[in-house]
Write a structure and sequence with these properties.
This protein is of the alpha/beta class and 424 residues long. Helices cover 39% and strands 18% of the residues. It contains 15 helices and 17 strands. The strands form five sheets. The chain has a six-stranded parallel beta sheet with strand order 2-1-3-4-5-6, sandwiched between helices. Strands 7-10-11 form a three-stranded parallel beta sheet, sandwiched between helices. The longest helix has 24 residues. It starts with a strand and ends in an 8-residue tail after the last strand. The structure holds S-adenosyl-L-homocysteine and FE3-S4 cluster (F3S).
Length: 424
């Protein structure tokens, strides 16, 4: 087993998990990554089920590798991630040429699954949630480049009524503090300058491990402070994603004080309407969200604020939708990911009445994008003529003389330069 090809769908958590899949296969077989599925001995799909479109892509892509498997019966085909977690055995029923199916919490068992597949001559499925075992079983991270992700918690216990994540990734579990610090140190030793602390909901960090209040309590703000002070070599610390409900003023203060922590806040709001937020089970209202924005702007005036918004949630009226438009005007987000509501089987919202038609959802998305694009453009125009530190990630789409990177505020920038600037 020499070459591994992994196709990654969806979120940054999946990108992180993909690096871990490469790590386990490298540690066990000395396997190396490849960009070319045609030369791969192992082809893995790290899937996403958060919205319908992402989910459909998986079966489409699987259909394409079927032919490769026919030509090379030794080829190992695996499906991991959230679609695997949700569909389990159904994947091998629909695509019998798939050898292994594994979930976000069992990816460290990949070598065992592949070996069991060979011994037993039938597909192997393991989509259990064996708590934090994953991290104890993972080899040291190996990285290329100056940026890396570090998972600080897995899963989500928020159960927003539209969202599949708690069902596919399991409940919130924090990684012990020492493990996070060790991983950051290992990355720094390999030349990493920028780490992004990852979780579905990083602001809930530590509650399950260290309690919520009183002696021994240790939360996300404390973690940020500790990493900021104890990670020589690391120059930038980012964190994503946040849940507005768990973001306290104390955390914003700690972030403001921490020198290496970047001025970027991704604060998914989902809707500007209190009644929709209630139906979504987001557990904050518009006023509380705006208060959080105010803390951020007050303590970190240069902060870049981005968000996620869903339009066309079941029963969303024109009036409720307009409250989202007015929130976007009021907050002045630097950027937003904007989605049409997509029904996810098994979630409470899937059983709600008054579904909007695709045409209605499209129309609202269009209107929202017009407002946000105008706001975002004005924000970018206000930056013309300013000077920013940019950490260069690489060449811009294969052009030999243009590089791209990000400001501390996570704004993507391109400028003339060559490959020698990577990591600078
Ligand atoms: N943990 C993150 C979200 C993870 S999913 C949070 O706290 O918000 C990423 C984004 O996908 C969500 O913020 C939401 O905007 C969108 N999303 C999730 N489920 C969706 C659905 N059923 N339909 C449309 N968009 C959805
Ligand atoms: Fe999904 Fe809500 Fe958690 S959007 S990931 S259930 S915070």
């Amino acid at each position: 087993m020499k070459k591994v090809y992994i196709r990654t769908f969806g979120c940054q958590m999946n990108e992180y998990d993909t690096t871990k899949m490469f790590d386990v296969l490298a540690a066990r077989y000395g396997a190396e990554p490849t960009d070319d599925p045609l030369e791969a001995d192992v082809i893995l799909f790290n899937t996403c089920s958060v919205r319908e479109k992402a989910q459909e892509k998986v079966f489409h892509d699987l259909g394409r590798v079927k032919e490769l498997k026919r030509r090379n019966p030794d080829l190992v085909i695996g499906v991991g991630g959230c679609v695997a977690s949700q569909e389990g055995e159904a994947i091998v029923r629909r695509a019998p040429y798939v050898d292994v199916v594994f979930g976000p919490q069992t990816l460290h068992r990949l070598p065992e699954l592949i070996e069991a597949r060979r011994r037993q001559d039938r597909p192997q499925v393991d989509i259990s949630f064996p708590e934090i075992e994953k991290f104890d079983a993972l080899p040291e991270p190996r990285v290329e480049g100056a940026s890396a992700f570090v998972s600080i918690m897995e899963g989500c216990s928020k159960y927003c009524s539209f969202c599949i994540v708690p069902y596919t990734r399991g409940e919130e579990i924090s990684r012990p503090l020492e493990d996070v610090l060790v991983e950051v140190a290992q990355l720094a030793e390999q030349g990493v300058k920028e780490v992004t602390l990852l979780g579905q909901n990083v602001n809930a960090y530590g509650k399950d491990l260290y309690g919520r209040h009183g002696e021994g309590a240790f939360d996300f703000g404390d973690l940020i402070e500790l990493i900021d002070r104890n990670s020589p070599g690391i120059e930038r610390i980012r964190f994503t994603t946040n849940h507005p409900k768990d973001f306290t003023r104390k955390m914003v203060e700690q972030i403001a004080r921490a020198e290496k922590v970047c001025e970027w806040f991704h604060l998914p709001v989902q809707s500007g309407s209190d009644s929709v937020l209630r139906r979504m089970k987001r557990s904050y209202n518009r006023k509380q969200y705006l208060r959080l924005i105010q803390w951020v702007r007050e303590l970190i005036p240069e902060a870049v604020i981005t968000t996620d918004i869903i339009v066309g949630f079941p029963g969303e009226t024109e009036e409720e939708f307009r409250e989202t438009l007015s929130l976007v005007e009021e907050v002045q987000f630097d950027a937003a990911f904007m989605f049409m509501y997509s029904e996810r089987a098994g979630t409470p919202a899937a059983k709600m009445e008054d579904r909007l038609s695709v045409a209605e959802k499209k129309e609202r998305l269009q209107r929202l994008m017009e407002v946000q694009n105008r706001v975002g453009r004005a924000k970018n125009e206000a930056r013309i003529g300013k000077v920013y530190d940019v950490l260069v990630e690489g060449l811009d789409k294969g052009k030999p003389d243009v590089v791209f990177g990000r400001t501390r505020g996570n704004i993507l920038v391109t400028f003339p330069g060559d490959a020698s600037l990577r990591g600078q």
